[in-house]
From TrEMBL:
<feature type="domain" description="PAS">
    <location>
        <begin position="54"/>
        <end position="107"/>
    </location>
</feature>
<dbReference type="InterPro" id="IPR003594">
    <property type="entry name" value="HATPase_dom"/>
</dbReference>
<dbReference type="InterPro" id="IPR004358">
    <property type="entry name" value="Sig_transdc_His_kin-like_C"/>
</dbReference>
<dbReference type="Pfam" id="PF00512">
    <property type="entry name" value="HisKA"/>
</dbReference>
<keyword id="KW-0902">Two-component regulatory system</keyword>
<keyword id="KW-0597">Phosphoprotein</keyword>
<feature type="domain" description="PAS">
    <location>
        <begin position="163"/>
        <end position="237"/>
    </location>
</feature>
<dbReference type="InterPro" id="IPR036890">
    <property type="entry name" value="HATPase_C_sf"/>
</dbReference>
<dbReference type="InterPro" id="IPR035965">
    <property type="entry name" value="PAS-like_dom_sf"/>
</dbReference>
<dbReference type="InterPro" id="IPR050736">
    <property type="entry name" value="Sensor_HK_Regulatory"/>
</dbReference>
<keyword id="KW-0808">Transferase</keyword>
<feature type="domain" description="PAC">
    <location>
        <begin position="108"/>
        <end position="162"/>
    </location>
</feature>
<dbReference type="InterPro" id="IPR003661">
    <property type="entry name" value="HisK_dim/P_dom"/>
</dbReference>
<dbReference type="InterPro" id="IPR036097">
    <property type="entry name" value="HisK_dim/P_sf"/>
</dbReference>
<dbReference type="InterPro" id="IPR013655">
    <property type="entry name" value="PAS_fold_3"/>
</dbReference>
<keyword id="KW-0418">Kinase</keyword>
<dbReference type="Pfam" id="PF08447">
    <property type="entry name" value="PAS_3"/>
</dbReference>
């Protein structure tokens, strides 16, 4: 309450008493207390607060709080009566300055960000928010400015931007693709680095916007295994995968995929993060290395079989030569010319046998290292085959009945006659070698789909089914050949010579009935 006491006097000026007036000032006291609290709050605020009176043309500052003094380095004594806003050293860009000037000219709120320098030339970043104040008649009387020091925030933003630029550079220049995806379902991509375009040909947006893109581009043969391993990723926490992924150009590339599960503070999975690296070159090298190792293994096996074959096959003709020559040396003068001739023929046959084996070894050796030359010429197949049959009959001197037939009296071709000779002579000699005396050997020649087809049918021992997978391997012989001489090189030479001429060979066989070889070789008559 507010009490006012007034001394009263009568008409003669004599004291006559007192008058007391009591008023309720509760509301005023509340307002005063609120004002005091507001003043204390303004004074204690961490934000710089400045009030300017704009009823005068200069718009002078009439109040600044301690935070403003600390923030700017200007004391209240220096700041008061300065023109609002107090930005003598502000480094503010044109757009922000224009926004501030427009707001003050139109009496509107405005927020600007600028760099400023204190009286000690220290640099700081401020965010200034100005608000107009109007009187009860609607006239603009004051501006209140709230200035916030955002220097630390700006430094953090700058550091973050630098860090992001560093990270972006490292990601974009990395040979690996960085990604984040959902931890389940189709593992849809949430983020992927831009270098996906240079490595896999896709834009990052394609993987992010298309549901199931990643899963749908895994090679169908690899997808079940990849998804099976990923189904356990939440339990294991990490993964390492190798699989084929479809490149934008339509080819599949081998990739190495390593990642881990990211969880929140309660352990719930949020996403999978990891990287993809193109390992196609490594896979190609591994493939070539495997082939090289397989070839080395084959060569070692070939060498072992060669040693075994030569030690066995060369021993027989050498023994024949040695025994016949010794007999001729000791008893030749006592023998008749006919008996001497018999032993000389035995020596000659043994020498021819060794010559054939050496020729086979030379041919297969050239074929194994890719040095068997292909030199095609034009010639007549029918005449060539007739002469070859005569030579085989003359050299083998077996008792089989040969039959040669041709679809046409003359067939022109463009082939390597030497390679063709290796093919047909080996097949014909085998037909004789593995057939009994008096049996038939049928040789048929015809044309089909611009290819010459050679069929050689015998009535020999046949080939066991278990030997067919290795039929064309060097030094491999059928399990039923018994004491029949052979090196196991003939059919290997046949297959190599056919492959060089881009042909093919099929076989039909039945134990005790006979074997038919069907050879297809392009005529190449257009050449």
């Amino acid at each position: 309450m507010a009490i006012a006491i007034t001394v009263l006097h009568d008409e003669n000026g004599q004291f006559s008493g007192f008058a007391k007036v009591t008023r309720d000032i509760t509301e005023r006291k509340i307002i005063e207390e609120e004002l005091r609290l507001r003043d204390r709050a303004i004074a204690a605020s961490q934000n710089g607060i400045v009030i300017a009176d704009v009823t005068n043309p200069e718009g002078r500052i009439i109040y600044v709080n301690p935070a403003f003094e600390k923030m700017t380095g200007y004391s209240a004594l220096t700041a008061i009566s300065q023109t609002f806003p107090l930005l003598p050293n502000a480094d503010i860009n044109h757009a922000e300055l224009q926004k501030l000037q427009t707001a003050m000219a139109t009496g509107k709120d405005c927020t600007v960000v600028f760099r400023n320098y204190g009286q000690d030339d220290s640099l700081f970043w401020h965010e200034l928010n100005i608000s107009p104040m109007y009187d009860q008649d609607g006239y603009l009387t004051h501006y209140i400015g709230i200035q916030t020091d955002i220097t630390e925030r700006k430094r953090a933003e700058t550091a973050l931007l630098i860090s992001q630029n560093h990270l972006q550079y490292l990601v974009s220049s990395s040979p690996a693709i960085i990604y984040a995806c959902k931890p389940e379902g189709d593992y849809d991509v949430i983020f992927i680095s831009d270098n996906i375009s240079s490595i896999m040909g896709y834009e990052a947006t394609e993987l992010i916007s298309n549901q199931g893109f990643w899963v749908n581009h895994i090679h169908p043969e690899d997808a079940p295994q990849v998804l099976a391993q990923l189904s356990n990723v939440l339990a294991q926490g990490k993964y390492c995968l190798e699989y084929r992924f479809l490149h934008q150009d339509g080819t599949y590339r081998w990739v190495y995929n390593q990642g881990k599960v990211v969880r929140d503070e309660t352990g719930n999975p949020l996403e999978l993060i990891g990287y993809l690296a193109d390992i196609s070159d490594r896979k190609q090298l591994e493939h070539e290395l495997r082939i090289a190792l397989e070839k080395e293994k084959e060569l070692n096996e070939l060498k072992s079989r060669f040693i075994s074959m030569t030690s066995h096959e060369f021993r027989t003709p050498l023994s024949t030569i040695l025994s016949s020559s010794e007999l001729l040396q000791h008893y030749g003068q006592q023998w008749t010319p006919e008996k001497q001739l018999t032993h000389l023929q035995r020596i000659q046959t043994a020498v021819n046998r060794m010559t054939e084996m050496l020729n086979d070894i030379l041919v297969i050796g050239k074929a194994e290292v890719g040095k068997l030359e292909y030199k095609p010429i034009h010639f007549d197949l029918v005449e060539y085959c007739r002469q070859l049959v005569e030579e085989v009959q003359l050299n083998l001197k077996n008792q089989q009945v040969f039959s040669f037939t041709s679809q046409f009296p003359s067939i022109s071709c463009y082939m390597d006659d030497k390679l063709l000779g290796y093919i047909l002579s080996n097949l014909l000699s085998n037909a004789c070698k593995y057939s009994p005396d008096g049996s038939s050997v049928t040789f048929t020649l015809y044309v089909h789909n611009e290819q010459a087809v050679f069929e050689i049918q015998d009535q020999g021992i046949g080939i066991p089914s278990e030997d067919l997978p290795r039929l064309f391997e060097s030094f491999h012989r059928g399990s039923n050949v018994g004491n029949i001489l052979g090196t196991g090189l003939g059919l290997a030479i046949v297959k190599k010579c056919i492959d060089i001429q881009q042909g093919k060979i099929d076989v039909e066989t039945q134990i005790g009935v006979g074997t038919k070889f069907i050879v297809h070789i392009p005529l190449n008559i257009n050449n």
